[in-house]
Amino acid sequence: AHVACLLGAAMLLRDMEFPGQVRLLFQPSEEGMDAEGRSGAQRMIEDGAMDGVEAIFGLHVESLHDVGTVHVSAGPIAASLDDFKLAVKGVATHAASAYQGIDAILVTAQVVSALHTIVSRRIPPAKLGAVSVGTIHGGTRRNTLADRVEMEGTVRCYDPQVRQTLLAEVKRAGELARTLGGDYELTLSGGYPAVVNDSALAELV
């Protein structure tokens, strides 16, 4: 759909007269990362796709809007994206002797609660952000305390400083596992920064 959108823009521009030149860019791997942690737009910039370009307009197909309409606004329009994998480690034991182990599921419940209070308690009310846990997997038997629980989640926001705060707080939430007698492993996968539209160019559109 995005390719068709850009081709449609090319067909319209072909019959227009204006000073300057237009360069059409097809961005591959919009949200993916390669083995070096870069892809999509970053690779295009490195390859010189933006050399000599004064301004850029991105097109994104959105099914929530009516066909034939164009929506544009100034300022932030898409949040930054960072993913995390967090493993909580405990000590397995039989459920009848829970005091002899460290219940990774119980510890995880505390960690998840801490993760979900980051936005409401660690960033200013006027700022926007989201920390979400999307998957949780742990335990092997109904009568055995789990020794490991793995979760995956995402961190989204618009402000670079808020982004750093949120990522630091995700780590702090993981450290709660140690306070409760367990341990944790955290992997952060940094994604793209927020998309912020230039106000003058937005008005031009």
Order of helices and strands: HHEEHHEEHEEH
Global mean pLDDT: 91
Q: Kindly, what is the distance between the CA atoms of the first and last residues, rounded to a whole number of angstroms?
A: 21 Å
- Across the major sheet, the strand order is 3-4-2-5
Summed up, the helix count is: 6
Assess the beta-strand content as a share of residues.
Answer: 15-25%
- Residue stretches low in confidence (pLDDT < 50, at least 5 long) are none
Radius of gyration equals 23 Å
Secondary-structure-derived class? alpha+beta
Largest sheet: 4 strands, antiparallel
Strand count: 6
Give a verbal description of the structure.
With 205 residues, this protein is an alpha+beta fold. The chain has helices spanning 2-14, 41-46, 104-115, 118-122, 160-179, 199-204, and strands at 75-78, 80-89, 129-138, 148-157, 183-190, 195-197. Strands 3-4-2-5 form a four-stranded antiparallel sheet. The protein has a two-stranded antiparallel sheet with strand order 1-6. The longest helix is centred in the C-terminal third of the chain and has 20 residues, at 160-179.
